[in-house]
Design brief:
The protein has 252 residues and is of the alpha+beta class. It has 6 helices and 15 strands.
């Protein structure tokens, strides 16, 4: 666990310290990450089964940064705990705090430091930051722990190449098709869960390709509403399925 070093905060610019976990999930998770500013330093504190995702939501509310997030597969006793009601399993996240200089923070550098800091914490999973050609950032889960604590590399579901015929459909139909194809070819089922269905059903797109990464197909499907929607691909340890949530971005 890394401790905050207030004296050297502005000099080093980016510091973190992270979480404690138990055998069962906390009943006092925070709905949103807390943001405070002191002496030019910004501190964001998350407390969630997925603290990195919660941290990205906080950065979006504060700066308008729209960043996509994708879970790895959480399956080991190290990365999974029982929910508070003991009926379900959830990622074994907890407290995670990240600090950085609030003086005109650079999005890419801040996100990279955030991901690096998270990967050094005791929270579940291991992630990398990826930037697309059109400057969209994705935080992608690339590894998870075994029961003995060792990290095992994983192939991200949205890295999987798909072949889809180019046809005009609503965004909703296209995304559902992508999820269905991933479910056929992947280790886990992928389901479109939360989304602004009215917006997706009112816009039509033509998306397809031969052996194109699912992430690229999904991004193309959402291009007509670019800047309005971001995604969260969440792994459910109970059903061992992925749920794709599409959210409208908060106005910055």
């Amino acid at each position: 666990m890394r401790k905050p070093q207030r004296a050297s905060l502005l000099a080093s610019c980016l510091l973190c310290f992270a979480c404690t976990r138990g055998a069962s999930a906390s009943a006092s998770y925070a709905k949103d990450a807390a943001i405070t500013e002191t002496g030019g330093a910004v501190r964001i504190t998350a407390n969630s089964p997925r603290p990195l995702e919660q941290m990205l939501d906080a950065l979006q509310r504060k700066y308008g940064w729209i960043v996509n997030y994708e879970d790895p597969q959480y399956e080991s006793a190290v990365d999974v705990v029982n929910a508070a009601d003991e009926k379900f399993k959830v990622p074994a996240g907890g407290n995670f705090t990240f600090e950085f200089s609030g003086a005109a923070p650079d999005e890419e550098k801040t996100l990279q430091h955030l991901v690096d800091a998270y990967n050094k914490s005791k929270n579940p999973g291991h992630f990398e930051l990826r930037r697309t050609e059109d400057s969209v950032f994705n935080v992608v889960g690339i590894a998870a722990h075994k029961d003995n604590g060792d990290l095992v590399q994983q192939k991200a579901p949205f890295d999987r190449p798909l072949t889809l015929p180019s046809q005009e459909q609503t965004i909703d139909e296209t995304v559902t098709h992508i999820c269905a194809e991933l479910s056929k070819r992947g280790h886990s089922k992928v389901v479109l869960a939360i989304s602004p269905r009215k917006l997706l059903s009112q816009n039509r797109v033509v998306v397809g390709g031969n052996q194109v990464a699912a992430r690229e197909l999904l991004a193309k499907s959402l291009l007509v509403v670019h800047g309005k929607i971001y995604w969260r691909l969440l792994f459910d340890p109970t059903s061992k399925s992925y749920y794709l949530d599409l959210h409208l971005a908060h106005a910055s």
